[in-house]
Amino acid sequence: MALDLVSIAQPHYIPGYTGHCPEYKYRIGDTYGSTTHKILLDPSVQHSERLVLSDRTADDFQIYRPPQTDIDVVNARFRNGDPVYKHPMIPGYEGFLPRLNAHFGQRYTVAATEALSEFERTQLNQRAARNQLERVVDLQAGKGQPWDLADRFSATAEFKLPLVAVRPECAGILRDEPMDEPKLSPPSHSISPYFMDNEDPEKYIKKGFTGHVPYGFQRFGEPSKKLTNSALCDFSSNYRRRQSTEWAPVNVVK
User: Fold this and answer.
1) CA angle, 194 then 199 then 203, to 5°
2) Is Isomerase a UniProt keyword of this protein (predicted)?
3) Is the distance from CB of 85 to CB of 78 less than 8 angstroms?
4) Which of 45, 48, 76, 205 is deepest in the core (most CB within 10 A)?
């Protein structure tokens, strides 16, 4: 009897459920379970005819992992000559498994089987696309007979396969042949604009720089590039002058 006083009647949403509950934000002053219980039974609330949280004990609902289709794909790969991967994969295997790093939250056997199935399906799709491309090449070369309307259109297409290079200067790139190219000079962007030559066209500070610009506080009315160039030239000239006079080493003669 005491348990009935503290328990929440069914149906209700379990506290911590983060899904949508219609009109929940308009109900206040009660616990989450009691509020959702009233909402689910209120005929004036617009919600689905079937409860989102249904009682799974009334039927034999169960999810089997991995699916039988994935198991069949892995076993078919084993029968076709792969002596390494076979369902079920024994936990503790330390070899490489393709696509295994993309599966989380499952046992090793389940994750390995689903990863192998996904990898094998990708391989089959790529192999089918390659075979189709080779068939189009043969049809356009007159080595086969078209089977359907798609093959007829492929055989009479304007652009023939394989595509030929129309830019001779790119032949070395397309064929992976080495070509003699002039050496590139090292980039000069690593030199600070404060110590560039005054004749250097790159001696300026880009627009939007919010740091300190020496000798720039007394300049205005000019574009940013011209203003910062003039300020940096004055800074460099003054720096080199003081470096050769005030900061020069002093020789003491007795």
Assistant:
1) 35
2) no
3) yes
4) 205
